[in-house]
Amino acid sequence: MVTHCGWNSIIEAVSAGKPMITWPLSAEQFYNEKLVTDVLRIGVAVGVREWSFDVWQLGKELVKREQLEKAVEFLMGGGGGGEEAADMRKRVRNLAEDAKKAVETGGSSQTNLMALINELKYLKNLKDT
Fold first, then answer.
1. Given pLDDT bands bounded at 50, 70 and 90, which one contains residue 95?
2. What GO MF annotations does this protein's record show (predicted)?
3. What is the enclosing helix (H) or strand (E) of 112?
4. What is the pTM assigned to this prediction?
């Protein structure tokens, strides 16, 4: 999956259990890319290194075709990816399982949402008294 590294795109890829080819464009996307490639190790960067205000300018080459081809080959297990790419796919599948558990009844997402709701109710009651 090729992603611009927006947070929603990363959540979607992780939830689907898909490793990513990262292609950030601006803002926090470069930090998100580091999380995906260096911390979680579930993605491969194509080499974009600078925030450009002209990302939509027609004809501007941000990434060379060869860089994208190399990233795709790596994730597919060729191009030297082999075991490292397989490990990457395994890690992202494990994260997908964790994400699914988080949204199940009794999972961390539900637990945290209920904690927030209860805290807001508590604060409202304090204000009303």
1. very high
2. UDP-glucosyltransferase activity
3. helix 108-128
4. 0.82
- For the ranges 41-45, 52-56, 112-116, the lowest mean pLDDT is seen at 52-56
Alpha carbon distance 95, 68 (integer Å)? 25
Amino acid 108 reads: S
Nearest 5°: CA angle at 85, between 109 and 29? 55
Q: What is the pLDDT of residue 86?
A: 93
The 3-state DSSP composition of the chain as helix, strand, coil percent (nearest 5) reads 60, 5, 35
Question: What CATH number has the domain spanning 2-52+61-104?
Answer: 3.40.50.2000
Residue 20 · residue 42 · CB < 8 Å: yes
